[in-house]
Amino acid sequence: MKTNITEKGRIKMEHIPKNHPRADSLRTRQRIIDGLHENIVIEAGLIAHGRGEAFDYLIGERTNDNAMHAIEVAVAALFSAKHAVISVNGNVAALCAEEIVRLSKITGALLEINLFYGKPGRIEAISKTLRDAGADNILGIIPFESSVIHNLSSNRRFVDPKGIKIADTVLVPLEDGDRTEALKEEGKRVITIDLNPLSRTAQQADITIVDNIIRVIPRMCEIAKDYKQQLDKNKLFRKELQEKVIKWDNAVNLSNAMMIISTYLESKVSFNKN
Ligand code: ATP
Ligand code: MG
């Protein structure tokens, strides 16, 4: 009998039926599960992904105009930075290694691995994934006992002296709240991607993209390519990008995101309200 379970009791990507109504979502989930078995993702990463999925339902699993605006400002902030770093954790590596490497190459932002749980072999597994995806310079690979982010107790306080430590702008997708707070206290501009507009990270960041990282990073790459072309043609375009960032109001962005959720839910309520 044909089975879709491997001898180790695992389902494989190719076993997901193409005509399944939620095939895309299942494939994304499978990448996280594969990441767990490859020592890239940790168990808590599965829970974080599930929370993200729940919020994705609430925004209709699509990129709305509000998120699109945040994406543009986030890319503008990367180009406006003197020293931008993209922080990579296990879920980010499992979900979009190629796209994140592409974004780093287009914008010049450096890639740094930064993990909550430093299980043996995990940094090596993540850096291999990034290298296979085309990265040639990855920071955060060796421990930096002397280079720390203050007011942070987890392993993530150890950062690369050539990366997050001296960065003025840090993209921290799928992040935990206390790290965002600590990075802010060090005076850094923090950009995040977080489907939950109520998380501490979403609330604390300077620019919060309330959308699924799977959809966000490819869009950021497209916009970054466009901005780069404009910058190559016209140096004054940098000023326009800086102004976009200065004008940005993240509180309004978060209110809009919550309004979108509320409106979406109301549109689904079918009982007669009168
Ligand atoms: P906080 O500590 O910021 O209050 P949290 O403890 O709820 O948040 P964590 O597990 O620390 O959350 O971080 C994961 C965050 O990433 C969650 O807010 C989750 O909604 C979000 N998330 C998970 N998967 C995705 C995804 N694919 N795209 C965007 N956001 C995601
Ligand atoms: Mg948290």
Supply the key terms.
alpha/beta, six-stranded parallel beta sheet, 10 helices, 8% strand, globular, binds adenosine-5'-triphosphate, binds magnesium ion
What does this protein structure show overall?
The protein has helices at residues 23-37, 43-58, 65-80, 90-107, 122-132, 177-185, 200-204, 213-233, 237-247, 250-268; strands at residues 84-88, 110-113, 138-139, 169-171, 189-193, 207-209. The protein contains 10 helices and 6 strands, in the order αααβαβαββαβαβααα. It has 274 residues and is an alpha/beta fold. It folds into 2 domains: 13-58; 65-261, Rossmann fold. Helices cover 51% and strands 8% of the residues. It has a 6-stranded parallel sheet, with helices on both faces. α6 (177-185) links the parallel β4 (169-171) and β5. The model has no long low-confidence stretch (mean pLDDT 92). Bound molecules: adenosine-5'-triphosphate and magnesium ion (MG). The site of adenosine-5'-triphosphate (ATP) has 19 residues, from α2, α7 and α8.
